[in-house]
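Exercise 7. Given the encoded structure of a 48-residue chain, write a plausible sequence.
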């Protein structure tokens, strides 16, 4: 059985104090999406 478990993660833009809390079952992929700006939303807007 190759089931991925959900996990909660927190990212921030430390100088400005914005926190983003998310849930994903593929953390590596999701962090790449945040860092690359592939997803429009909070993390893109605040450069988390």
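Solution.
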């Amino acid at each position: 059985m190759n089931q991925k478990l959900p996990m909660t993660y927190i990212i921030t833009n430390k100088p400005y104090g914005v926190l983003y809390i998310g849930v994903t079952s593929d953390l590596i992929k999701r962090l790449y999406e945040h860092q690359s700006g592939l997803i429009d939303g909070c993390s893109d807007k605040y450069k988390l």
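Remark. Helices lie at 27-36, 42-45. Students should compare their own answers with the one above.
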